[in-house]
Design the sequence.
């Protein structure tokens, strides 16, 4: 399980900032992997959502049931430091994306 967590962290580091986007998502869904980016609802649990969507990125062929099972297993084993690392990477990339989108809207 620790290898999979490290793979998620590596994936987060390797993707460009625009790969991660905040969107208001209505209903029970907390995020979407759209092929070229991940959309996350900031009003919901970001850690579980990013882990879940990264699992879809790592293996798009896994069923939703398999992804949910792995997500739950990861949440049980992930350390506080790993959670902090995931949130730090994600927050930097989202902030960069939001700043650039705001700048482009002003032009």
Sequence:
């Amino acid at each position: 399980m620790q290898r999979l967590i490290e793979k998620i962290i590596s994936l987060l580091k390797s993707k460009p900032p625009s790969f991660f986007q905040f969107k208001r998502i209505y209903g029970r869904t907390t995020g979407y992997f759209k092929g070229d980016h991940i959309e996350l609802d900031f009003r919901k649990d970001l850690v579980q959502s990013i882990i879940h969507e990264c699992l879809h990125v790592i293996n798009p062929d896994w069923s939703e049931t398999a992804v949910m099972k792995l997500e739950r297993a990861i949440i049980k084993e992930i350390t506080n430091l790993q959670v902090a690392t995931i949130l730090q990477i994600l927050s930097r990339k989202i902030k960069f994306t939001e700043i650039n989108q705001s700048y482009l809207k002003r032009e």
Remarks:
- Residues 80-106 form the longest helix (27 residues).
- The beta strands are 20-22, 31-33, 38-40.
- Residues 29 and 66 are 16 Å apart (CA to CA).
- Residues 2-106 form a domain with the Zincin-like fold (CATH 3.30.2010).
